[in-house]
Amino acid sequence: NEDVLIAPSVLSADFTKLGAELDAVRDADLVHYDVMDGHFVPNLSYGTAILKQVKAATKLPLDVHLMVSNPEVQVPWFLEAGADIISFHLEAATHANRLCAQIREAGAQAAVALNPATPVCLLDSVIEDVDLVLVMTVNPGFGGQSFIPNSVQKVRKLSELCREHGVSPAIEVDGGIGVGNARDIVEAGANVLVAGSSVFKPQDRAQAIAGLRAQGRL
Ligand code: DX5
Ligand code: ZN
After folding, report:
1. Which domains are assigned to the chain?
2. What's the pTM?
3. For residue 139, how far is its CA from the centre of ligand 1 (angstroms)?
4. Among candidates 133, 10, 140, 2, which has minimal Cα distance to 68?
5. CB of 22 within 8 A of CB of 14?
6. Which protein residue's CA is at the shortest distance from atom 6 of ligand 1?
């Protein structure tokens, strides 16, 4: 069994000392970067200027989660800014397959994200074109929300869908993930854990990451 990847979400970091915050999570596997446009989700976060600074301040790959309407407009901006993985929401994309191809052609990994109310069967026509599926386990827009319990069942269904198609994209879960639910969701098939408040709230970020890792080791 492969180890899960831990992706701290900088949305929960202290932005007045972002360099130190990134340094404190250097034992993680990815940096999760949440882009909110105030339209697809009811909140604003940050864009490419800060992503470039984050890229200069960490060696970890950048996992960019676009919670934006019309992602086809913004994907090129984030490719240019150095994203290693780009997730766009299936609910917001009109030509998901084309957008995945565009991301891959630029040398990044293509991912689609699903809101909690979006069923996994909608992935049927795109699952063979993605490197990763991001399953939202809260309604996107804010850090620190509670994990939606039926997400475990949803990830199980997604694992089945992947098996049926003979593909094995990474399965990332995002929202309310902590030591209390990491094991269940990994057992269901998730192998990338986003963690905002459960990594940045504790004083010792390295220990928080190690704790999540231990839960993910089945
Ligand atoms: C929510 C974002 C998440 C968020 C996770 O809209 O997509 O990545 O930062 O934060 P926690 O882990 O605190 O729920
Ligand atoms: Zn996210």
Report:
1. 5-216 (3.20.20.70)
2. 0.98
3. 9
4. 140
5. no
6. 140
Res 202: pLDDT: 98
197 is in an annotated binding site: yes
Q: Which atom of ligand 1 is nearest to the CA of 140?
A: 6
Tell me, using a 6 A CB cutoff, whether residue 194 lines ligand 1. Answer: yes
Ligand 1 atom with minimal separation from the 11 CA: 9
Environment of ion ligand 2 (residues, CB < 5 A): 34, 65, 174
Q: What tokens appear for 210 in the block?
A: 């190690």
CB of 165 closer than 8 Å to CB of 127: yes
Mean pLDDT to the nearest integer, 15-31: 98
Tell me which residue has tokens 């399965």.
Answer: 171
Q: What is the pLDDT of residue 1?
A: 55
Does residue 84 have a known ligand-binding role?
no
Q: What is the CA radius of gyration of the chain?
A: 16
User: Is 34 known to be catalytic?
Assistant: yes
Query: What CA–CA distance (Å, rounded) separates 58 from 32?
Result: 12
189 is an annotated ligand-binding site residue: no
The yes-or-no verdict on residue 94 having pLDDT over 80 is yes
In angstroms, the first-to-last Cα distance of the chain is: 7
pLDDT in tens, 122-141: 999 999 999 999 999 999 99
Q: Which ligand sits closest to the CA of 9?
A: 1
The active-site residue out of 37, 129, 131, 174 is 174
Nearest to 117 by CA among 88, 90, 145: 90
Q: In the predicted model, is pLDDT for residue 192 greater than 90?
A: yes
The complex's ipTM?
0.99
> Is 204 in the active site?
no
Predicted local distance difference test score (pLDDT) of residue 52: 98
